[in-house]
Predict the structure of Lipoprotein.
Amino acid sequence: MILNRRHKILAAFLLSVVLLTTACTPKVPGRFDQVQQESSKQKSGQAVAKNATQGEKFNKFFPPKQAGYEQVFTQEKKGFAEAKLKKENKELAALSISDTTSTPSAAAKFSKSTKKIAGYPAVEVGKTQTAILVNKYQVKVLSRDSSFTASDRAAWIKKFNLTGLAKLK
């Protein structure tokens, strides 16, 4: 009985020592902690401009339903909306509208454009992206499948309600 009681006291003491030493040990910073602190302090490039258009307002300007195609909205936030374009459960492209107020460099690339789609300045980015600038809004189609070509991207850009988007303030 005395031996059993000593074991309980010893176990309680050891447990207390372990808890005390682990609770008082300073936390070792993780490899991302410093980067997180630095990026949290930055003001430029971090947040969307206050006057950027809400993403939900862009949804009505996306192409209307097309026979055989499905649009799945995947992202909607201030200044941006995106939908996946699918056919027979295969993702063909990503369709998006973004407000360039927060990213002036996105709009600047259109200043030297000689190409137009639906009367708006257009740019090709690599072999997979086509975009136009409608006032301050960038309409972009990004191929997700090799069968979805530059002419397909241009055709889908024309299906957006560009006239309505141009009137959006």
Residues 41-46 have pLDDT under 50 and may be disordered. The chain has two domains: 2-41, 55-167. The longest strand covers residues 90-99. The two ends are 84 Å apart (CA to CA).
